[in-house]
Amino acid sequence: MILFLCISVLVVVADYFTKLLAVNVFKANEITLIKDVLYFTYVENRGAAFGILQNHRWVFIAITIIVIALIIAYVFIKKPKKKIELVSLSLICGGGIGNMIDRISLSYVIDFIDFRIINFPVFNVADCAVVIGCGLLILYLLFIEGKENG
Questions:
Q1: Is the CB of residue 112 less than 8 Å from the CB of residue 124?
Q2: The one catalytic residue among 15, 102, 114, 127
Q3: What is the pLDDT of residues 115-124, one digit of tens each?
Q4: What Å distances lie between residue 148 and 78, 118, 142, CA to CA?
Q5: Which residue of the set 15, 102, 111, 114 is catalytic?
Q6: What values do phi and psi take at 15, rounded to 5?
Q7: Residues 5, 2: Cα–Cα separation, whole Å
């Protein structure tokens, strides 16, 4: 449980401080890291992934609260034995909390990582955590869970 809490809190803190940096630095000036590939660009996202469902913040807040509550309940009741499962759930939880803080306090989510080589939507640290967490959870469910016993 300590691992779950530490990773979740670390994601929330990293997300918060990178968004603070985005507001104070990238809002005024876009920063080129790799020309035509990677930039830091300040964006206020009032929707979900790819900007869909603009201005439906209460729907996203409600869904996030439900998902986080289910993850926390699962972790504390089932006590996952495999670290990959626990880490994946921690990343999803921390990322969800990070973006929910923005939705509640600002009415939008601050995005700033602008990966242009494939014309991808601008995203943030919380989004990275959720995507990586979901990917790890899928790998766990497909290749690990239930395989030990046959």
A1: yes
A2: 127
A3: 999 888 999 9
A4: 17, 39, 12
A5: 111
A6: -65, -45
A7: 5
Residue 15: active-site member? no
Task: Give the model's confidence band at 39: pLDDT under 50 very low, under 70 low, under 90 confident, else very high.
Answer: very high
Strand 31-34: give its sheet, edge to edge.
31-34, 38-45, 109-115
Q: Is 102 in the active site? A: no
Cα dist from 97 to 35, 92, 105, 149, whole Å: 32, 9, 12, 35
pTM of model > 0.85? yes
pLDDT > 80? residue 104? yes
Q: What is the pLDDT of residues 11-29, one digit of tens each?
A: 999 999 999 999 999 999 9
Q: Rounded to the nearest 5 degrees, what angle is found at the Cα of 16, between the Cα atoms of 45 and 71?
A: 85
CA dist., res. 132 & res. 148, Å (int): 24
